[in-house]
Write a structure and sequence with these properties.
The mean pLDDT is 82. The chain has helices at 2-15, 19-27, 29-47, 55-80, 82-88, 91-95, 101-106, 112-131, 139-165, 167-170, 174-187, 197-206, 210-222, 225-253. Helix 2 packs parallel to helix 8 (112-131) and helix 13 (210-222) packs antiparallel against helix 14 (225-253). With 259 residues, it is an all-alpha fold. The chain has one domain.
């Protein structure tokens, strides 16, 4: 962990050498958040509720999703672009170093724009939304929210890692996979109860992204946190196991550049 935080500090110092560009790249994400909330407010000014969900709750769903994807992209971004190292043969450089390969690739690039530009503003929005939902708070529920955020970051980290690992077989995977993921994210910006059963099954069981934001709020309102925690643990273990198995299999077939 000392090496990891040392790399983060070094990356931060490198980016902060161009301070105006660094801070502008972060601040430019704020209008996007404001515009999204304003558009949603315009929709709710006409319909007031969406399948029984209030405006604040819908904002919470979108903000929590943006929070965890922003943090995950900031920490696991280079895994998404593993295809570049595989095609160019740069993966050979990591293989000869006396550090865990996955760890080396993960810390190759820390995307501070995603962490500070997407993560921090959406964290503030999530906190404001939670304070206005009329939830009777306790230490147990506060810890649960932390668990949900951690689960979301690790879940998307597994997804981004899976995109990179698939490049061992298909080479160019990032663009195609991210196009699909962006499409799926549009569905979970809203409560999945508004969709038909096939879509609900897909978002709950096949690609369980609904457990990142929708189901945690459902179980929080029902005060049944234990069920959500079990589901999140099972999903995360299954996702991590899938990535690990494909990672080992992919490395076994990697041949390098031969030079």
């Amino acid at each position: 962990m000392d090496v990891y935080f040392h790399m983060v500090r070094a990356y931060f110092k490198a980016r902060s050498q161009y301070r105006k560009n660094f801070f502008c790249s972060i601040l430019i994400a704020i209008p996007y958040q404001v515009t999204s909330i304003a558009v949603l407010y315009g929709v709710f000014s006409a319909f007031h509720t969406m399948d029984g969900w209030s405006y604040i709750e819908i904002v919470f769903l979108g903000s929590l999703l943006n929070l965890v994807t922003g943090l995950a992209n900031g920490l696991f971004k280079h895994m998404r672009y593993l295809e570049n190292d595989i095609i160019s043969g740069n993966l050979d450089i990591f293989l000869v170093r006396p550090r865990t390969l996955f760890f080396q690739i993960m810390i190759q690039e820390i995307d501070l724009f995603s962490i500070l530009g997407m993560g921090v503003p959406n964290l503030l929005i999530v906190i404001v939304c939670l304070s206005k939902m009329g939830i009777c708070w306790s230490l147990r529920k506060v810890i649960f929210i932390g668990e949900v955020i951690l689960f979301g970051v690790l879940f998307w980290g597994c997804v981004f890692s899976l995109i990179g690992v698939l490049a061992f077989w298909f080479y160019r995977t990032n663009h195609v996979c991210m196009t699909f993921i962006y499409s799926v994210q549009d569905f979970v910006q809203y409560p999945i109860s508004i969709y038909n059963k096939i879509i609900i099954f897909f978002l709950s069981c096949i690609f369980p992204v609904a457990f990142v934001n929708y189901y945690p709020l459902v179980f929080l309102r029902m005060d049944k946190l234990y069920y959500a925690e079990i589901a999140m643990a099972v999903i995360l273990l299954a996702a991590a196991a899938l990535v690990y198995l494909l990672w080992k299999r992919g490395l076994s077939r990697y041949q390098g550049t031969g030079s």
